[in-house]
Amino acid sequence: MSLALVCMSHSPLFSAGEPPDEIRADVEAAVSVAREFVDEYDPELVVAFAPDHYNGFFYELMPQFCIGLAACGVGDFGSDTTPYRVPAEAAELAEAVITAGVDASVSLQMQVDHGAVQPLELLFGSVAAKPVIPVFVNSVAPPFAPMQRVRLLGEAAGRYLTTLDKRVLLIGSGGLSHDPPVPQLNTATEQQRALLLNGRNPSPEVRAQREQRVKAAAVAFAAGEADIQDLNPEWDRAFLQVCASGVTRRFDDYRAADMTEAAGHSVHEVRTWVAAYSALSTAGAYRVTSSYYRPILELIAGFAVTTARPVT
Ligand SMILES: O=C(O)CCC(=O)/C=C/C=C(\O)C(=O)O
Ligand SMILES: [Fe+2]
């Protein structure tokens, strides 16, 4: 068995927006470092922890964690809609995680959005290039599980994955500090409330409206005119240090309300990193082998890409 990790921010504005050339080139260079790391590792199985932005999971019934036994992209922001190749190990992973006392849901029809799909597209070219087990981690819909529970999810997954005779790549997708215009239940308009409750399969017009809202917010944010929270590079750098420290219990100290206040409503996407790094820690001490960070207004993101592997 072996484990390796890539955790990276995602941004719909990277694929569907128009960031300045210099920023696009800088992020692409960071992603290509991760891609080389993955190419060299040549994973046989990918476990991808990812959030959702009210495309596959809704307040009608919002789990904190869900393991996909089958999955397909909804195609928001032009993302890949090819069905995932989910391997038989997905059911075993679910069994192991739930038996370990982490109450994950399972889905035989998981719908995923750009948050899950973008890293797979960037690292592999397609979601179907590798067998992938998708694991949803609630990152935009309060109330949120304590961070300790996210760590335990990751550790339970990692303990199962280390029993496999396979090279397994762990992916965490999202974060760091950012506050893009994802509707919030406590401030939603009537139309947004219906979306949050169950906005599955929106019409092309509604989909376009949602996407346009995010693109317009990015333009305004870069011009210093958006009504959203600032990025918080200090918070981001401290979080990256915790990841690099290898002491995953330090994740437990983060409190949901403090995170939102310091680093925006979507900072909770770092929960996918917590799960992935905690899973990696079950293979023993690890080392972060590359780390990119840049606060990027045009992508509304404290944007980071890290790779890590066990110390041999
Ligand atoms: O309008 C909506 O409901 C969706 C908005 C949305 O999907 C925004 C996504 C932004 C990110 O994924 C991000 O910056 O992490
Ligand atoms: Fe996101």
From TrEMBL:
Q: Which Pfam families match?
A: LigB
Q: Which UniProt keywords apply?
A: Aromatic hydrocarbons catabolism, Dioxygenase, Iron, Oxidoreductase
Enzyme class, broadest EC rank = oxidoreductase
Q: Which cofactor does it need?
A: Fe(2+)
Name the catalysed reactions.
3-(2,3-dihydroxyphenyl)propanoate + O2 = (2Z,4E)-2-hydroxy-6-oxonona-2,4-dienedioate + H(+); (2E)-3-(2,3-dihydroxyphenyl)prop-2-enoate + O2 = (2Z,4E,7E)-2-hydroxy-6-oxonona-2,4,7-trienedioate + H(+)
Pathway, per record = Aromatic compound metabolism; 3-phenylpropanoate degradation
EC numbers listed for it are: 1.13.11.16
What name goes with this protein?
2,3-dihydroxyphenylpropionate/2,3-dihydroxicinnamic acid 1,2-dioxygenase
Organism (species): Kibdelosporangium banguiense
* Lineage, broadest ranks: Bacteria, Bacillati, Actinomycetota, Actinomycetes, Pseudonocardiales
